Amino acid sequence: xxxxxxxxxxLADGQLRGxxxxxxxxxxxxxxxxxxxxxxxxxxxxxxxxxxxxxxLHLDRYLEQFAANAxxxxxxxxxxxxxxxxxxxxxxxxARRGARTVVKSKSMASEEIHLNAALAARGIAPVExxxxxxxxxxxxxxxxxxxxxxxxxxxxxxxxLFAEKLGMEPSDDVAKLAAAAxxxxxxxxxxxxxxxxxxxFAVAETGTILILENEGNARLTxxxxxxxxxxxxxxxxxxRFADLEVFLRLLPRSGTGQALTAYQSLLTGTKRHAAxxxxxxxxxxxxxxxxxxxxxxxxxRQTLACIRxxxxxxxxxxxxxxxxxxxxxxxxxxxxxxxxxxLLGMGESAELPYASSLCGACRDVCPVKIDIPAVLLHLRxxxxxxxxxxxxxxxxxxxxxxxxxxVMARPRLFGWLMACARRLHIVPPLGAxxxxxxxxxxxxxxxxxxxxxxxxxxxxx
Amino acid sequence: MRSEDxxxxxLSAIRENLARGSSPPVPLSVxxxxxxxxxxxxxxxxxxxxxxxxxxxxAVGAQCSVVRGExxxxxxxxxILSGAGARRVVGSDAPLxxxxxxxxxxxxxxxxxxxxxxxxxxxxxxxxxxxxWGIAETGTLVLESARERSRLLSLVPPIHVAxxxxxxxxxxxxxxxxxxRQADSHAITFITGPSxxxxxxxxxxxxxxxxxxxxxxxxxxx
Lengths: 461, 222
Known about the structure:
CATH superfamily of chain B: NagB/RpiA/CoA transferase-like
Low-confidence stretches of chain A: none
Number of helices of chain B: 6
CATH class of the largest domain in chain A: Alpha Beta
Order of helices and strands of chain B: HHEHEHEHEEEEEHEEEE
CATH topology of chain B: Rossmann fold
Number of domains of chain A: 3
Strand content of chain B: 15-25%
Low-confidence stretches of chain B: 33-45
Number of helices of chain A: 23
Helix content of chain B: 25-40%
Strand content of chain A: 5-15%
Mean pLDDT of chain A: 92
Distance between the termini of chain A: 65 Å
Radius of gyration of chain B: 22 Å
Number of strands of chain A: 10
Largest interface: A-B, 103 and 78 residues
Shape of chain A: globular
CATH class of chain B: Alpha Beta
Number of domains of chain B: 1
Helix content of chain A: 40-55%
Structural class of chain A: alpha/beta
Oligomer: heterodimer
Number of strands of chain B: 12
Structural class of chain B: alpha/beta
CATH architecture of the largest domain in chain A: 3-Layer(aba) Sandwich
């Protein structure tokens, strides 16, 4: 992966940048309006974070409680140490149930484990059913935003795609495009033997899983096929059923600026009677895949408090310019820059912690108050410790910072050097900073000189 | 068994990593502030909840009619069905739904819930169900699977008509969560307005996978 190269490609794409500006600005405005209605937003954030902290500090206990209660209600709970195990488990369930077509509702975790490729390799056709994910899948591309995956595509491009793949009359009417997708996906839902969903929250007290959405595809995915597989990271568990309230207040408002998304499905085990609606089997796959490692330090642990709302993406000045693709991972934006290196290991994504100006906008909007800049700095320190930069570059860097420290600690030396630079009209080379920006020439007199002269002047009056 | 090994490994990895962390593993106190303790209902203002509920329904793009008693409800339901040009209608097994739909049998084709195939369901124009609770704060309908078979009827047909008693409107999301009989229902569905998406150029489209129209018939006691 090359963040640097891919970011440059994104920056050169005017259409992408226009779409990103529109989307991130709109979501930011909607979020601000939505949280203005909540009497004690700060209190809600604190409470949610405290619940997450409490859960994470006792994660083993809450996971066991969740699994026991889900199993008591009829679900089958599977545990996956890593992506390969999770894919094997899900493919195994599909094979045992004789599933040929699998419908999927949006799940970041399923993208994290590359489930679609794993299923396709076993001759099973996975169909994404969230409209944005469906468009991205038809186009053979990757999502560029957590909440609106196809934000990088115009309706004209989508119309051309649907004309080619679905045989619909090209149309610029967004409602017609959505209707074409609805019709095509209805057939898939009718045929599907297995539904795969994500999980937003898993309640330890009751064994309930909660899925939020707006389109209704997650409801179809979890109620039409005979078998439902829900994939969740270990960090999705919360202790009590009543805890759902605070998270339901925070998540939709932070994500899309809605007071509540159109649908919440609260699923507890399987149907109680044969005549009931819903799948015969519910399988819950609990995924670690590098998450338990993050528990070892309080700094990295907070990464696991994330509820995947996407607010930090919309607020991030870097993401707003380059979008999701440049991050080269399933999780983009500020949260992706801290999550990806921890999930995949620094070797895969050592550049990502540097994809930030550390401005802190992500921390300010985070509904669970994750201090993302602190985690970024922690990971940068790790990258340096494991020899992120080596050889001459490291030596030069060390030399540069040592000289800088020496000069800054000696005011007279600093003054003398600046006077020389002024006289010789030297602007120090600042590498990448001056590559794309013009640095103004140094003023003929320094501010300190002006100040001193001004004081003398004032005093002389 | 492999999953059993993975379970043991994951749980011990969690314990080991937590032990490595510097913070002591004591229970944190969760602050009780923060807007989550349901705000008390405005004292003595009967009907405030209903008003808020209908306002919120309108805000999320749902229709709403307030009717008094079953006879009026039956008339309103017939009006909604014919107004929508419905041909095939399917009702849940809730007694109220059955009672209201029975007199409409000769005007609309009624799909039988017990023999409903997937194709039959997909061919219905309207699904009629009750809702167990309404949440005023958000304009949300709450459907519990233990109470009736409404999960697909409220989802697959393009029009969903939901019958709700004004007595079952609660103030806040927290009240709603406290009321649902979670232990009895394998599926509880919260519905707030029609199905929606903004996935194409952020343009709002309703009815992408679920109903395009949600019509709430609010029944006041006679």
